[in-house]
Design a protein that fits this description.
Its main location: membrane. This protein is of the alpha+beta class and 402 residues long. Helices cover 28% and strands 35% of the residues. Helix 2 packs antiparallel against helix 3.
Length: 402
């Protein structure tokens, strides 16, 4: 029991000493410094270094932000219209090609034979028709002299008409054989960039194969498809209908780099009932191919320009249970001010209520601030703006209960 009492006595002594140091330390340590006009040494009494920026009037773009997908204007699977062995490829994977450029060739042997057959039949028919017409001319003269019967003359007329009909049919066969022969040379249907080839030289290519030879994607110009909430539809539609050109910015995934600028071209004709959004399409020239098909981008649609808005950096805005607020400097102390936010433009936000131009707003050092906390303003050159010395009052010693 003796050692327990001794332990309790030691613990009690330590607690009393700690309490005495807690209540008497500010008075003995801070009072002399305050009386001497020196900077307080307590971290809770020292002013918080901050950087401020003044609220300024500026023209601010009203933007609608969305998530978009880069979509080519045209994508074509290059297919062969005829079957046969693939003999030559005239492209490299990833090449940029123009419409009409020769890409591949199919073996022409079978189609040359078909063309020659049709051509021979046409020549044969031409000779027969020529001979029939000569006989018809002779029969015409004999008919005038009543040397032949009318039936014989009519029969010759029918033969000429029959051969002329056959000639048209054979000519069509010849044209078809010529067309099939031309299909053995495969040309690019559009201008764009090639993908990876799907068939190698020597393989037997089937006509209209779904796999195709290669894919061509039109990359310049290119479009971005994105969706906006139904609540923003009226604002965007009014601006679009007014006839003004609405510019669209495409930013990278991290919204750190502007990739390209384009214009809004199309609004969809109905709202998606599942998501409550409307799809929009913007077109970009993409001459340097900054945008890549199926790429994810952050979209900023510039709807209008707000003239003379009160603006501050967006990083200065804080969010709490009571709403959005900022810290201002009043008599070298931080004070909270509730504000109403407006449009946002490249790191700047418009303040529609709660702030006047020229008011200093805390931009850096926010994490250590609280209402009424003393601050010292750091200038851009690193110097400290003069501030009145501020000290904390020492805590009162608690009175012992009587």
């Amino acid at each position: 029991m003796a050692w327990q009492k001794k332990t309790m006595f030691i613990v009690a002594s330590v607690l009393v000493a700690a309490a005495s140091a807690y209540w008497f330390w500010p008075k003995t340590a801070e009072a002399p410094a305050a009386e001497a006009g020196q900077r307080p040494t307590s971290p809770w009494a020292m002013p918080v270094p901050v950087r401020v920026v003044e609220a300024a009037l500026a023209d601010l773009r009203v933007q609608v932000k969305a998530i978009g997908t880069v979509t080519p204007l045209n994508t074509v699977i290059v297919q062969s219209r005829v079957s046969g062995p693939l003999t030559q490829l005239h492209f490299n994977e990833g090449d940029k090609v123009t419409a009409g450029q020769l890409l591949a060739e199919i073996d022409t042997a079978d189609y040359q034979i078909q063309f020659a057959q049709a051509q021979g039949q046409l020549e044969q028919n031409t000779a027969q028709l020529k001979n029939a017409k000569m006989d018809l001319d002779l029969y015409s003269k004999l008919r005038e002299q009543s040397s032949i019967s009318a039936q014989q003359y009519n029969t010759q007329q029918a033969l000429v008409a029959q051969l002329e009909g056959s000639r048209k049919s054979i000519q069509a066969q010849l044209d078809a054989a010529k067309l099939q022969l031309s299909y053995t040379k495969i040309h690019a249907p559009i201008t764009g960039r090639l993908g990876l080839r799907r068939v190698d030289v020597g393989n037997l290519v089937q006509a209209n194969s779904a796999e195709g030879l290669v894919t061509i994607t039109q990359s310049s110009p290119i479009t971005v498809v994105f969706a906006i909430p139904e609540s923003q539809l009226q604002q965007v539609r009014n601006a679009f209908r007014s006839g003004q050109v609405l510019t669209v910015e495409a930013w990278d995934r991290a919204e750190q780099q502007l990739l390209s600028q384009g214009v809004l071209t199309t609004l969809d004709n109905q709202i998606d009932a599942t998501t409550g959004t409307l799809r929009l399409k913007a077109e970009f020239k993409n001459e340097q191919e900054e945008l890549f098909p199926n790429q994810f981008v952050n979209v900023r649609l510039n709807v209008s320009v707000q003239q003379g808005a009160i603006t501050i950096p967006q990083d200065a805005v804080q969010y709490g249970s009571a709403g959005t607020y900022i810290y201002t400097i009043e008599q070298n102390r931080a004070q909270i001010r509730q504000v109403t936010l407006g449009a946002v433009d490249n790191g700047k936000v418009a303040i529609t209520a709660g702030l006047q131009p020229g008011t200093p707003v805390v931009l850096e050092g926010l994490d250590r601030l609280r209402p009424g906390r003393a601050v010292e303003v750091i200038e851009n050159d690193g110097s400290v703006k003069e501030a009145k010395p501020v000290t904390e009052q020492p805590r009162r010693r608690p009175q012992r209960a009587q």
